[in-house]
Amino acid sequence: MTEKILLVDDDLDTLKLVGLMLQRQGYQILAANSGLQALSMAEKESPNLILLDVMMPEMDGYEVTRRLRANPQTTHIPIIMFTAKGQVEEKIMGFESGADDYLTKPTQPKELFAHMKAVLTRTKKTPHAIETRIKYEKERGLVIGIVAAKGGLGVSTIAINLGIAIRQLSEKSVIVTDFRPGQGTIGLDLGYTRSESLNHLLQKNATEISPIDVERELINHQSGIRLLLSSHRPLDGKCINLTDHFKVITEHLSRSAQTLVIDMGNCLAPYIEHIANLIDHLIIVIEPSPNNLIHSKVLVENLISSGIGEGRIKYVMVNKARSGIQLTLSQVQDQLGQPVLVVFTPAPELAYQSSISGNPIVLLQPDSITTQQFTQLAEKLARPMDLL
Prior knowledge:
single chain, alpha/beta, Rossmann fold, eight-stranded mixed β-sheet, 17 helices, elongated
């Protein structure tokens, strides 16, 4: 098969000259004269190699490389920086940004061809590159996010039990994660005293996080699901602003399982708009009180403005008090203008036993009403083909 080469240079004469030389060597040539055009073409065309100039207006080659490495769809593509900038510091910057090779202009055609062949051969023989390509040929799994307008409504409890319920219904692969650095509770609820796996990824450069890195941090749970857990140390909360990291991690996770469930906590985290296009269902956890409905409606407005389509937003209701002192289901649905998928009835003793035993509700009491409610929610959210 003819190898596809993407040439990126703002000098049109260079594009024509180098493109013609490579065509004579049997390569298929694509050309981009700006960084933005290169990013778009790389994602759309998936070339075998990118030959990239550094000195370009608006976005230089270093930034193009960083963005290519941060995008899971292009992170595997080998890059040779081909530029007149030949200082040692500039070469170091090129390699640190993610380039596979660095070649200084002007150069003899034979030297250029030799570097290209070496990089292409090395890439073909690298298991990591092959595995990465295979992963990103896979269909993305179903992504379910769960969030609330206030704490204490059981977002983490719903995330872990929903994930297990989907696994039990479909027997397909499920990953549950809490994107709550500094406030992670799923690990504590399940008896993991040190929940560092998400932190390990957040400490890397976003461009360096690979599918294999993410796989290594996943924890196998007895229920058959896998977990990526957040730290519960408050100081780690500063990591919530690492939006590029969360986007890359979400992409990798969504292609590592048929269903991904994300505990997003009780705030509008900065990363949400960066992963909005990946979320299939966003569950808003509410309680039947007037103030919480006001807060929840504002939260939904903000989510929609962040790119979460209204059709992807769903509601579940948690009853924590007797019915006489709260709104009825019909009143809640009238105020929301949407149906509530499931109403969780009060079960404080069951929740307490689950917490102290480290055993999720659906495993602790599989015949309980609460477990039936989690199963009902799983049936409404899972893809029909996953239940066959």
